[in-house]
Amino acid sequence: MTDGTTADRRWTRRHPALPGAPRLVCFPHAGGGASAYRGWADRLAPEAEVLVVRYPGREDRFEDPLVPDMATLADRVAAALPLSADRPVTLFGHSMGAAVAFEVARRIEAACPGGLARLCVSGRPAPHAAPESRVHLLPDEDLVEDLRALAGTSEAILDDAEFRALFLPAVRNDYRLIETYRPEPGARIAAPVSAFCGTHDPHVRPEEMPRWREVTSGGFSLRTFPGGHFYLQDHLDGVVGEVAGLLGPAGAASLTG
């Protein structure tokens, strides 16, 4: 457990807020960096403190070594977060970030009972229900086509050979990390889970998201938005508004058992 002053600050981009404000930790998707949550702090601060996880191998951590497996990544992120039962954190993760957030949630509850307020997951099947895939083994061109299908990466970047050479190693590593990840049998958390999904996400159907209910002994809720895998780019105000309503004790009223 850390108060945030001794943690490795390379792992989060922190947006200050009012003293005692609820904390929200955001986890990017595969290949994504802290910039994926650009605008969240603008909408939530100073009433909430926003911390965005900074994975190595991209953006301002481009030269840092990539993390090869889920356990190591979750260990390092959890160790870098400010944890306190008096000021529990809410986690929000999209796509790969949802699985990373789940593993970090487990570590928070083990290290700091009461330190986790809620887990919010988006655009990703529950860890024990995720289908097997091997996209990380595909040739570069096929990997790029998968990114095009998800429509979350700029076409200009995908079409530029030099940019592709720079970001594809991190993308492939992230795909390998998430595709080789297997949760511990029966892994659960006590905090409530709130799930989010696009109505036409090619990677997870809205009717699959309730499987997240099986990993919590707390409450569960599901909210869908029109759109595909990156629905939250088109509905930023709506998504952030929903998450804001879940921060702090008042959010418990929105959950069903």
From TrEMBL:
Pfam families listed in its UniProt record: Thioesterase
Keywords: Hydrolase
Domain Thioesterase TesA-like: 25-247
Keyword Hydrolase applies: yes
Biological process according to GO: lipid biosynthetic process
SMART domains linked: PKS_TE
GO molecular function: hydrolase activity
InterPro entries linked: AB_hydrolase_fold, TEII, TesA-like, Thioesterase
Similarity field: Belongs to the thioesterase family.
Annotated PANTHER family: S-ACYL FATTY ACID SYNTHASE THIOESTERASE, MEDIUM CHAIN, THIOESTERASE
Listed name of the protein: Thioesterase
